[in-house]
């Protein structure tokens, strides 16, 4: 809370607030060619090898798939995704289908955007996850950011492992 007068605190966004958007960016150079990283990234069936917590992928088409995660108590949780952008071999972006799922109570939007660019020694992989929190979930923004950062770091570790020669 600030005790400065409103006019000294700087500009204020008085626009509608329908939820808190949390965005997290993680980057790492993966010691593999951009072509190899793209092959793994573009195949939803490969997600179980590199995306944290994914036990399997079901009903995978070119632009839709279902990831099956397992909770700490051993219960399977399904999350459906659809492809938003695919620009081989540089960028792939997908979003979670939230309508009618338990995730809808927590998020109004959840997207993952991965970009690849060749560098000395491999491929620079940048993962951006944007999650727009809904309702009471907005109060857990800091915890969500920490958990997302850990998950993206694990994803980059998994991608490096999967793409290793």
Beginning-to-end CA distance, first to last residue: 52 Å
CATH superfamily label: START domain
Average pLDDT, rounded to a whole number, is: 85
Helix amount: 10-25%
Task: Give the strand line-up of the largest sheet.
Answer: 1-7-6-5-4-3-2
Give me the number of helical elements.
3
Which structural class do you get from the secondary structure elements?
Answer: alpha+beta
As residue ranges, the low-confidence spans are 1-20, 136-140
Order of helices and strands: EHHEEEEEEH
Q: Supply the CATH architecture.
A: 2-Layer Sandwich
Classify the beta-strand content into a percent band.
35-45%
Largest sheet: 7 strands, antiparallel
């Amino acid at each position: 809370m600030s005790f400065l007068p409103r006019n000294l605190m700087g500009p204020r966004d008085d626009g509608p607030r329908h939820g808190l958007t949390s965005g997290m960016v993680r980057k790492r150079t993966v010691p593999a060619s951009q072509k190899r990283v793209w092959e793994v990234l573009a195949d939803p069936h490969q997600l179980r090898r590199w995306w944290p917590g994914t036990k399997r992928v079901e009903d995978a088409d070119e632009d839709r798939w279902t990831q099956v995660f397992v909770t700490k108590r051993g219960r399977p949780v399904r999350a459906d995704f659809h492809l938003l952008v695919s620009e081989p071999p540089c960028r792939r972006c997908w979003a979670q289908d939230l309508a009618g799922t338990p995730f809808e109570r927590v998020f109004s939007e959840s997207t993952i955007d991965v970009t690849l660019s060749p560098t000395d020694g491999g491929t620079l992989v940048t993962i951006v996850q944007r999650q727009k929190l809904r309702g009471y979930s907005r109060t857990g923004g800091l915890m969500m950011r920490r958990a997302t950062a850990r998950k993206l770091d694990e994803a980059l570790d998994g991608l490096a492992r999967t793409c290793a020669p």
